[in-house]
Design brief:
The chain is mainly β and 121 residues long. It has one helix and eight strands; from the N terminus they run E-H-E-E-E-E-E-E-E. It is globular. 24% of the residues are buried.
Length: 121
């Protein structure tokens, strides 16, 4: 299991600043990278460039939306696995145990409240 997570909670871009997700993903050399891109009201948009397994976790008070830009993302739940490809997304409701797995290098966007700790509660 990969525990070398590079998680950056600082907001990288201000309103009206251009965000080039492709260029940011291209620059990334980490196996599991998470960067908060921007704030939208009480939520944030985060970029993930990931490969491998994250640990099982949940967010007690907040939903989490995953959107695949490129690659493949499997989200294991306790009773099934959701498989996402490019241009597909899913919302994981608060309190639900889940484990993201990227079988190959995958670029994702996540939308969640700014209070969410990416590693879970």
């Amino acid at each position: 299991m990969n525990r070398n997570y590079n998680i950056n909670l600082d907001v990288k871009f201000d309103p009206t600043e251009l965000i080039d997700v492709g260029a940011l993903a291209e620059e990334c050399t980490d196996q599991w990278f998470n960067q908060t891109l921007t704030r939208v009201n009480d939520s944030v948009v985060r970029l993930g460039v990931i490969e491998g397994e994250f640990h099982w976790h949940k967010h007690d008070d907040d939903d989490e939306f995953f959107y695949v830009v490129s690659g493949k993302l499997n989200i294991e739940l306790e009773d099934r696995t959701i498989e996402l490809g490019p241009n597909q997304g899913v919302t994981i409701p608060k309190g639900m145990m889940h484990r993201p797995i990227a079988p190959e290098r995958t670029v994702i966007l996540m939308v969640e409240t700014s209070a969410v700790q990416p590693t879970g509660d």
